[in-house]
Predict the structure of FAD-binding PCMH-type domain-containing protein.
Amino acid sequence: MLIRLPAPSSGFRLCAAKCLVASKLTMKHAFLVSLSALAAGALAQDTFEPSDFNVTEALVTAGVNVSDIPQLAALTRRSSPGACKIACSSLAIIYGAENVLSQGSSGYDTFNDAYWSSIQGEVEPYCVFKPSEASQVAVQVLISRLTQCPFAVKGGGHAAFAGGSNIDGGITVSLENLKQISLSSDKKIAAVGPGNRWIDVYQTLDPDEVTVVGGRVSTVGVSGLTLGGGISYLSSKYGWACDNVDSYQLVTASGIILDVSQKSYPDLYWALRGGGNNFGIVTKFNFNAYPQGKMWGGARLFSNESFPATLDAIYNFATKGSPADHDAAAIISFGYASGFGPLASMQLEYAQPIADAKVHEEFNALTPVQSTTDIHTHAELALMLNEGIAYGVRNTYWDVSFKVDRALFTFLIDTFYELLPNIIDAAGLLPTISIQAITEGQLKGFQKNGGNALGLDPAGGPYFVMNMGANWDNVADDARILKFHADVIDAVKAEAKKTGVDNDFIYMNYASQFQDPVASYGAANHQKLKSVSRKYDPQQVFQDLQPGYFKLDKGAPNPKWPSS
Ligand SMILES: Cc1cc2nc3c(=O)[nH]c(=O)nc-3n(C[C@H](O)[C@H](O)[C@H](O)COP(=O)(O)OP(=O)(O)OC[C@H]3O[C@@H](n4cnc5c(N)ncnc54)[C@H](O)[C@@H]3O)c2cc1C
Ligand SMILES: *[C@@H]1O[C@H](CO)[C@@H](O)[C@H](O)[C@H]1NC(C)=O
Ligand SMILES: *[C@@H]1O[C@H](CO)[C@@H](O)[C@H](O)[C@H]1NC(C)=O
Ligand SMILES: *[C@@H]1O[C@H](CO)[C@@H](O)[C@H](O)[C@H]1NC(C)=O
């Protein structure tokens, strides 16, 4: 189903004196073209975007008359050195300078300082555009096409590496003003704007005693997490976040706003379930909402004497406990705290207000050095799990996956602690390695509504994601810290190959810039994703003009694996 592009109802905000472009623009005639023409035209095409697609005309249809913006009018189709200057000043003319932050302004610095990883905050876009409606996102995509000014999209800004959701010299589209959250009257669908963080969603829905399948930590963005997969405490029950989106509102490369569901565009719907930022800009997620009262959960810390017992418990949970009770979730992370030494943090959740569920018996028998497990609302739990997470420092994330195997659990933490001395003196270092089971229940959830793009065969499960992350203070330590992660992964991969428990899948949301998650979904899925992309985006706008993060056919963002 096509949604028509509404013209900006209040007309353009005309330029103030400080505008970059002459202010004497009369734009009232800019909306003359019948808006239904675009929708009708697109439907009539046998291909989604015709080969003679004219960006200028699409902009007119979207309410922007290029003739009225001299810089745009003068453009030929190819890029010019001033492409982004023109694109940014055009957006300022159309939507007001207050919605376009430029370099040197205090708003711009505040914006960049708010990325979770300071490595992303160091990236300097030409401008930051803050749309407040899907139609404005469509105009930005078309202006980027016309000017050939590249762009990046920021949801919650938790991608760890440079360029994940920010772009040097281009337009960073911040979705922060797309903050809608509403629950349908039957409480079955929660419509959520992509500028929301999970805490916004849970706090809004908790009073209605419903929730959605989303991130575990309060501040993480709804949109990046959902587009890459999205592991929730509720995932053994319902699948990952991407398996619980009823439909997506999506701005395509040709500036059309689609309502993508399994019914309307099954191929695109499938591709959005794990395909990341490759198919368009999502301007609304319609999540399935589920009844959810208070739940039990929290984190427990263990010293190294307990490591073998915690690994036994996680192994038994992944292979027996979880299949028997889908309300339960458990993750274990190993790290090192200066002044304390090796430490394990176990996150436990239960989707009912029950502290002593049988499935958690083995965990409850262990003696933690500290515990916060208790009965909470979903929002309270998400806030609690955010405590102690550092913001605005240097960060890296990595992951690989394997079949669940008790011997490999021991091997991976031994490898981690054996290699840790290589970096342990780095200032501000906080390194972790985690085991997260991809349970039988999760794999079942993956199959809902035509399946997702992740390519995990349920018959081979349960699997687990081994994800690693670190934060630290100084640029000077970047190289050896990245190499440490690569070395641990190389060693554990080699061991898993030897013992027959290796698995290809790389989870996008924890992947580093040296990895290629999309290719890890398997040759058939990789091929299918590419063909969906060529169908809806024949000029490959989201591959070439939005170069950051994990692309379909370009390999790892940084092909140079850190090694000695
Ligand atoms: C503290 C912390 C806790 C985490 N907890 C979990 C967890 O519980 N479960 C889990 O699965 N993962 C978790 N993650 C990983 C998380 O899923 C990823 O970091 C994810 O990318 C975050 O999304 P974001 O919107 O905040 O990030 P962003 O950096 O804004 O976005 C990530 C990517 O998605 C693209 N994107 C964002 N919004 C849109 C959109 N609307 N349309 C098109 N493309 C878009 C961006 O361009 C970027 O390439 C966690 C990460 C951190 C740092
Ligand atoms: C666009 O603007 C030009 C110049 O102001 C005008 O001549 C033209 O009719 C406009 N086109 C549309 C479709 O409104
Ligand atoms: C697109 O349409 C405009 C206005 O109709 C026209 O001036 C321009 O030449 C067209 N561009 C291309 C590349 O066909
Ligand atoms: C636990 O770590 C300490 C160092 O912090 C070490 O001395 C001790 O041997 C370790 N114990 C085990 C069981 O590994």
In short: Residues 82 and 221 are 32 Å apart (CA to CA). The longest strand covers residues 328-337.
